[in-house]
Design a protein that fits this description.
With 411 residues, the chain is mainly α. The chain has 17 helices and 2 strands. Helix 10 packs across helix 14 and helix 12 packs antiparallel against helix 13. The two termini are 45 Å apart.
């Protein structure tokens, strides 16, 4: 609420900053408490609507029978058609003071907003608030279709438990153009879908680095950590899942789904947690029966999820991109031992020959046109260049070829 201008205001995040807007001008004589009540109920309705986006029925993983989690989510989503009617004509107290309370969180949130607006009793104000509810509803529906333009862009800050094929394709295109995706990966694509594409490209980068270094695909990030400190747990976990046969989508949504459940107070992988506790106890016992300090240390290192539960999808995306960077670090350590023909033979991919050749030719041309006296490890200001400038064209080309060869895993 903007007290100075006497208007109700709103805002949403774009990933690059917040966008503010005017919801409605406050009628004369409206109390601060009444205005804040409307604002609070607009927030509650927005949360209920966006929860249907982050928790779609398709991601519940059950058979949609009555009273199942999938059935409950689908029931909530079906209440979208009643939202605007409930805001306009809410359930009001009867003569005896009783009131109908909806079972659905979405429906009841809409009725509570309608009652708060009704209490103010101004038609123009009511129409403006209803228009904002309609805009928020449309933004959620638009995001569900994979279109994050306009108000739907706020989805880039949320952790959805499933991925949009449209958004995965958009993220894949960004990563193909620039291996770390650039700023648009965080401001124009929902983070779960971006993480799915990033997992695909991480696996491609790890395959290239493994072929060059001799390490296993699942060990390349661990090996790179000896060169420069990088997050190890999450990228290695995703690589292990994919090496075991999981698709990028399944690996990413499984990790995000677990983190979302944990944030809501659930324990999605109790057997795994018990195994970790047992292993920590056995390791401590092997060191000595009385080593309680070691046991406490080992237990303190156990995590229910490697992700930040307050923002699991963006956190996973960041770790996967750093994992790609780690693959580049390891590849660079062994690159001098390779030649172009060995690179091509290592992958046996038809596309590599053309792609690597074209990129290396472009690099040679650029080098010939540049200052021959300039140190190739420094930029024009004498500073060491940032990623992706540090990645060699051979590495980038090989990763792109590997990603193209396994593109069917993204479908």
């Amino acid at each position: 609420m903007d007290v100075e201008r006497s208007v109700l205001v709103g805002a949403y995040s774009t990933g690059a900053g917040d966008v503010g807007f005017t919801v409605a001008a406050l009628p004369a004589g409206v109390s601060v408490d009444a205005a804040l009540s409307v604002a609070a109920r607009l927030d509650a309705l927005s949360r209920a609507l966006w929860r249907c986006y982050t928790h779609p029925a398709a991601a519940a993983g059950d058979d949609m029978t009555d009273d199942s989690e999938g059935w409950r989510r689908q029931s909530e989503r079906e209440e979208f058609d009643r939202v605007l009617e409930a805001v306009e004509k809410p359930n009001l107290p009867d003569a005896g003071g009783g009131i109908i309370v909806e079972y659905s969180v979405v429906a009841e949130s809409a009725h509570r907003l309608g009652r708060a607006v009704h209490a103010i009793g101004d038609q123009a104000f009511a129409a403006a608030v209803r228009a904002q509810a309609a805009a928020e509803l449309a933004a959620v529906e638009q995001a569900e279709l994979g279109d994050l333009s306009g108000r739907a862009v706020q989805a880039v800050m949320l952790s959805r438990t499933s991925a949009s094929p449209v958004q995965v394709a958009a993220a894949d295109a960004l990563l193909r153009e620039e291996l770390l995706g650039g700023a648009q990966l965080f401001t124009a694509v929902d983070p779960t879908s971006a993480a799915v594409a990033a997992a695909h490209w991480l696996h491609a980068a790890a395959t290239v680095a493994a072929a060059a270094s001799g390490y296993e695909v699942t060990q390349v990030v661990v090996a790179a950590d000896d060169i420069e400190e990088v997050p190890v747990a999450t990228p290695s976990m995703v690589l292990a899942m994919m090496q075991a046969g999981a698709s990028p989508h399944d690996a990413v949504t499984a990790l995000i789904g677990e983190a979302v459940d944990i944030a809501e107070g659930k324990i999605p992988n109790l057997p795994g947690l018990l195994d970790a506790l047992t292993e920590a106890t056995e390791n401590a016992e092997q060191q000595g029966d009385d080593d309680e300090e070691l046991l406490r240390t080992l237990l303190s290192e156990i995590r229910t999820t490697p992700l930040d539960t307050s923002r699991p999808a963006p956190d996973l995306l960041e770790d996967l991109l750093t994992g790609i960077y780690a693959c580049m670090l390891l590849y660079r350590e062994y690159e001098s031992e390779l030649d172009d023909e060995e690179t091509i033979q290592a992958f046996d991919l038809a596309e590599v020959d053309d792609v690597v050749g074209a990129v290396l030719a472009e690099e040679d041309s650029a080098a010939a046109a540049g200052d021959e006296n300039e140190d190739e490890d420094e930029d024009e200001n004498g500073e060491e260049p940032d990623w992706p400038e540090l990645a060699s064209p051979r590495f980038l080309a090989a990763v792109r070829a590997q990603a193209a060869a396994t593109a069917d895993r993204l479908v």
